[in-house]
Design goal:
It is an enzyme of class 2 (transferase). GO terms for molecular function: amino acid binding; ornithine carbamoyltransferase activity. Belongs to the aspartate/ornithine carbamoyltransferase superfamily. Residues 6-140 form the Aspartate/ornithine carbamoyltransferase carbamoyl-P binding domain. This protein folds into two domains: 10-129 and 293-306, 3-Layer(aba) Sandwich (Rossmann fold), CATH 3.40.50; 132-291, Rossmann fold. The chain contains twelve helices and nine strands. The protein has helices at residues 15-30, 54-65, 85-93, 106-115, 130-143, 161-173, 191-200, 209-214, 236-246, 253-256, 277-280, 287-306; strands at residues 43-48, 69-74, 98-102, 120-122, 152-156, 176-180, 203-205, 218-221, 262-265. Bound molecules: phosphoric acid mono(formamide)ester. Phosphoric acid mono(formamide)ester is lined by residues 52-55, 124, 132, 266-268.
Length: 309
């Protein structure tokens, strides 16, 4: 991997660089002990403008396993709230080796990147969630090591940041992704990303759910309402409208009768909405393994970005 210094989106990574990172993530997972100590004496700043369980825990535990340290910064109780983002980012980068940030707006993340003198990792913004997509593909590679490149994924839900990152990573790796996405989160469609999928012939859209899942190896869903709006009273009307529109697209036991696919979800789960509790706990669900793989994926990203730093 030559000149890469950040992971904001797969847009910025070539097919070869992404393939190399996947191979490396598998290696990191299979050789967990080997990398202990690789981040000794180094710190990561983890800045959160939104809530998180997996992203925070996997990066923090990952840094600990690598022998480094992670500093949690809550946007609301830091001076990112008061000052220019690039100034605060430059300050941070004079103290830590790497920054992971979960910001609401991609524009703000790019400003943070411009101020930082160290690698910046996108921990999920309105447009992209690359670390999630990396863990998703790592999960599939570990699940089907011999033929993962022939895998067919069917994503059912709202077109959102997770979808954009799935489109980017599957296009780079030649994995087919069928989208059943009756609606999109506001301004979430990134034409450049869709073009990459189209040019590789790895993306298609399907309206009929049973047709979409028939040949799928994995069915994947995500929340219908973005995390920062889920419990926001101002968003309740839109939330109710989305639920009514999306309910026919729920992943439930009836749908599983029409496919042999395994079930994926990036979590947090809203059981009873995009997926039923029964399916989450079904033997075909690999959701908790997928979430566990965030740890190895995060470690691989940190190690790669700091390889030459
Ligand atoms: N999937 C994911 O990013 O989980 P968190 O929002 O809990 O970090």
């Amino acid at each position: 991997m030559s000149t890469l210094t950040h992971l904001i989106s797969w847009k910025d990574w070539s097919d070869d660089q992404i393939a190399e990172l996947i191979d490396f993530a598998v290696y990191v997972k299979q050789n967990r002990v080997f990398f202990s100590g690789h981040m000794a004496g180094r710190s990561m700043a983890m800045l959160f403008q939104k809530t998180s369980t997996r992203t925070r825990v996997s990066f923090e535990a990952g840094m600990t396993e690598l022998g480094g340290h992670a500093i949690f910064l809550d946007w609301m109780s830091s001076n990112f709230l008061l000052s220019d983002i690039d100034f605060e980012a430059e300050y941070l980068s004079r103290n830590v080796s790497i920054i992971m940030a979960r910001l609401k707006r991609n524009e703000d993340l790019l400003i943070l990147q411009s101020g930082s003198k160290v690698p910046v990792i996108n921990g999920c913004c309105n447009l992209f969630h690359p670390c999630q997509a990396l863990a998703d593909i790592l999960t599939i590679v570990m699940d089907r090591p011999k033929d993962w490149k022939k895998t067919k994924i069917c994503y059912i839900g709202v077109h959102n940041n997770v979808v954009n990152s799935l489109v980017g990573i599957t296009a780079a790796l030649g994995i087919h992704l069928t989208l059943v996405t009756p609606i999109a989160s506001p301004d979430s469609i990134v034409p450049e990303v869709i073009e990459r999928g189209k040019s590789k012939g790895t993306i298609s859209w399907e309206k009929d759910l049973k047709t979409a899942v028939r040949d799928a190896d994995y069915v994947y869903t995500d929340t219908w309402v973005d995390m920062e709006f889920f419990n926001d009273p101002k968003f309740q009307k839109e939330k109710e409208e989305r639920i009514e529109l999306m309910m026919p697209y729920q992943i439930n036991s009836e749908l599983l009768k029409h496919t042999k696919a395994k079930v994926m979800h990036d979590m947090p789960i809203h059981a009873g909405y995009e997926i039923t509790r029964e399916v989450v706990l079904n033997e075909r669900s690999i959701i908790f393994t997928q979430a566990e793989n965030r740890l190895d994926a995060q470690k691989a990203v940190v190690l790669k970005l700091l390889e030459k730093a």
